[in-house]
């Protein structure tokens, strides 16, 4: 009996491929861009395992073309690209890669907050485009981060890491979460708050929630209208958490001062999208975990999950434990 086949449709570090080659025949495509649909489905049709980034959507139509599939291992923490219900029904194990990207993503989220508050991308463009002609008293005035109030919506591993960074800036930190985290409240001086209270009191509202039916569009016109006029919205979780039409209206009509966005409802942004010309919006191309060290660690963690499943052992990061009996 031959080895199982693992299909990897995107570029990963070479050591990931080498590791999986010890337990499987690896169908590896060293591609930065996504494969076209037919090439992807052809690879899926022969695979026992898929090692993928979250840009690959594994829904019913794909699973219908995957008769041998036993494992889908996401190189990501989020897994809204997976139809977990259908995977479970078919007995296919699914995993993600928590922990290894926590600190890197927190760095990015806090950096995005500072960039929006202090207008760093706008100031960089101002200099490089030749507009800077000298010092002016009101040139590029921004908002203080040090000592401000930060509201974190969704308080998991990354939310906690962001709160630790905020402590270094002596920020007052509020958090909204389904459950209270009493240890962090005591150690970091956090204050638990409802979403409405957090929105009213925060200078910076930072979203760090997973995308679920409950969180889809959770920040809309009503929520944005509760925020301070000089407040900033920072989204480093999933684009669908924010109603973008409402945010565009809030920014255009100056209900809030600005936004920092690493994620969007549709990625990439299409030409002509209002965010692309708004000076009070910092836009990043979904790079929360984008460091060499972290992406390598994520890929290897996904590969280890895959190897466990193919050996008949329960992986550490199983998303649908009902398949494991």
Note down, in words, how this protein is organized.
The structure is a single chain. The two termini are 24 Å apart. β9 (204-207), α10 and β10 form a beta-alpha-beta unit. Strands 8-7-6-9-10-11-12 form a 7-stranded parallel beta sheet, with helices on both faces. The mean pLDDT is 97. The protein has 2 domains: 5-98 and 292-323, NAD(P)-binding Rossmann-like Domain (Rossmann fold); 102-283, NAD(P)-binding Rossmann-like Domain (Rossmann fold, 3-Layer(aba) Sandwich), CATH 3.40.50. The chain has helices at 14-20, 37-45, 60-63, 84-89, 102-117, 120-128, 157-168, 182-188, 195-201, 221-226, 244-252, 292-310, and strands at residues 5-8, 25-28, 49-52, 71-74, 93-95, 149-153, 172-176, 191-192, 204-207, 232-235, 258-261, 281-283. α1 runs parallel beside α12 (292-310) and α5 packs across α7. The protein is an alpha/beta fold.
Sheet-strand content, in percent, reads: 5-15%
Number of domains: 2
Parts with pLDDT < 50 across at least 5 consecutive residues: none
**Level-2 CATH architecture of the largest domain:** 3-Layer(aba) Sandwich
Number of DSSP E strands: 12
> In CATH, what is the homologous superfamily of the largest domain?
NAD(P)-binding Rossmann-like Domain
Protein name: 2-hydroxyacid dehydrogenase
Keywords: Oxidoreductase
EC number: 1.1.1.-
Enzyme class: oxidoreductase
């Amino acid at each position: 009996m031959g080895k199982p086949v693992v299909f990897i449709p995107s570029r990963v570090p070479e050591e990931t491929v080498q590791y999986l080659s010890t337990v499987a025949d690896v169908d590896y495509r060293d591609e930065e861009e996504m494969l076209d649909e037919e090439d992807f489905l052809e690879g899926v049709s022969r695979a026992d395992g898929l090692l993928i980034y979250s840009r690959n959507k594994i829904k019913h139509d794909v699973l219908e073309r995957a008769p041998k599939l036993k494992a889908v291992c996401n190189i990501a923490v989020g897994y809204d690209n997976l139809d977990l219900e259908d995977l479970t029904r078919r007995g296919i194990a699914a995993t993600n890669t928590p922990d290894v990207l926590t600190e890197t993503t927190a760095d990015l989220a806090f950096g995005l907050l500072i960039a929006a508050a202090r207008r760093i991308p706008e100031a960089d463009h101002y200099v490089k485009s030749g507009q800077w002609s000298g010092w002016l008293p009101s040139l590029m005035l921004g908002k203080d981060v040090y000592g401000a109030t930060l509201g974190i919506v969704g308080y998991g591993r990354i939310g906690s890491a962001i709160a630790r960074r905020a402590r270094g800036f002596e920020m007052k930190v509020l958090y909204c979460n389904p459950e209270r985290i009493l240890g962090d409240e005591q150690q970091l001086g956090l204050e638990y708050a409802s979403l409405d209270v957090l929105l009213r009191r925060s200078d910076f509202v930072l979203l760090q929630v997973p995308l679920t039916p409950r969180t889809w569009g959770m920040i809309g016109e009503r929520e944005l209208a509760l925020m301070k006029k000089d407040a900033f919205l920072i989204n480093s979780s999933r684009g669908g958490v924010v109603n973008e039409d409402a945010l565009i209206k809030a920014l255009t009509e100056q209900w809030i001062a600005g936004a920092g966005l690493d994620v969007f409802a549709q990625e990439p942004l299409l030409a002509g999208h209002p965010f692309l010309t708004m000076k009070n919006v910092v836009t990043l191309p979904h790079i929360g975990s984008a460091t060499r060290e972290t992406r390598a660690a994520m890929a290897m963690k996904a590969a280890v999950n895959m190897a466990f499943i193919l050996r008949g052992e329960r992986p550490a990061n199983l998303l649908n434990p009902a398949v494991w009996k």
